[in-house]
Known about the structure:
Layout: H1 2-35, E1 48-50, E2 56-57, E3 61-63, E4 68-69, E5 76-79, E6 83-85, E7 90-92, E8 98-105, E9 108-115, E10 119-127, E11 130-137, E12 141-146, E13 152-159, E14 166-169, E15 175-177, E16 180-182, E17 189-192, E18 199-201, E19 204-206, E20 213-216, E21 222-224, E22 227-229, E23 236-238, E24 245-247, E25 250-252, E26 273-275, E27 278-280, E28 286-289, E29 294-296, E30 299-301, E31 304-305, E32 308-310, E33 316-318, E34 321-322, E35 325-327, E36 341-343, E37 346-347
Parallel strand pairs: 1-3, 2-5, 3-6, 4-7, 5-8, 6-9, 7-9, 8-10, 9-11, 10-12, 11-13, 12-14, 13-15, 13-16, 14-17, 15-18, 16-19, 17-20, 18-21, 19-22, 20-23, 21-24, 22-25, 23-26, 24-29, 25-30, 26-35, 29-36, 30-37
Antiparallel strand pairs: 27-28, 31-34, 32-33
Amino acid sequence: MRYKNKTKSIRVVLRLIVGLTTSLFVLSLTNALNAEGFTSHKGRFWKTEPVGCGDVLEHGRFKLTGNLTCDQDPAITVIGPARLNLKGYTLSGVGNNVCILITGDGAWVRNGTIEECEEGILIEKSARNRVYNVTVKNCKEGILIEESDRNKVINVRACENDRRGFRIKKSSENLLKNCLAKDNGRKGFSIEENGDGNHLVNCMAKYNGQQGFKIEEGDDNKIYDCKAIANCRDGIEIDGGSYNRVINNLVEDNGNKVACAEEDYKPWYYAGIDVTKGITDKTGDLVYPSEYNEILNNRACGNLGCVPCYDENLSPTCKARERDFWDENVDDKGDCDSNNVWQNNRVVCRNVAPECSPEPVEPD
């Protein structure tokens, strides 16, 4: 027994010596490479590495050390599980590049401003990534989630972008929480092309040039505890989608001409919450109906719409009136052939509803 224990101890010592020798060799090789000007973007999670234009971040923690303007496309690529902290600085593009491309699984991007890009942040063909405490402005698209599932976008502002603030395309089970879309040229929040099972929670769409929130070709999505304020078109619209739930939202002063980026203002299409019949093809056949949606416990006030009238030249005109809730499946006779469920929605008045005045507080 003594002999066996002694042999085991010798083996342990030899292994320690071999391990130490290997570690010293790797350290010497790394120092030599750095001395020759080589840079590795495979960082370490116990050390935060600086980032420059065109970098591909594959592993570890990274940070900006100052404002950056990049013409590379993408300006920075983050491959999960890498984590990028913008440290309060601004990353700027040149108008036709992606500022931050996120791929892989488990990446994080946080704490800074992104501007002047084609897409501010593009999450593409990936899952379980996180973006939070970021402002995206003056881009063509603010945040685009494409063919990606189960991502989280939290406390993000998308303002003054040419098109959409937030766009979810061909993606499922994503969470947008405490987000603001303001002064964007088109939609504030858009779910489209079979975007299913996404959740928008406590978000605000304000002063956007088209709809505040729009579900187009998407099922099983949820919009709840959100606010749609003074957007050009509908506050919340379901246009081709089923089994969606719109719950406990405030829609106010939508159909607002001042917010319109378009010259052709058509209030007869607008309402606070609007469920259309669905999407038709070129022949007029209904190919993507809107049915079995639930619109529950929402509050509305001051949303502008009207019933169209046509003169002998078939030019639509209308007398403006408040239209807070509208289901296009209800025909002109008042008979409802819709399978959508509307319950406990109410029109509130400014003098009895303090949530309508003063302006709602924007999320942090």
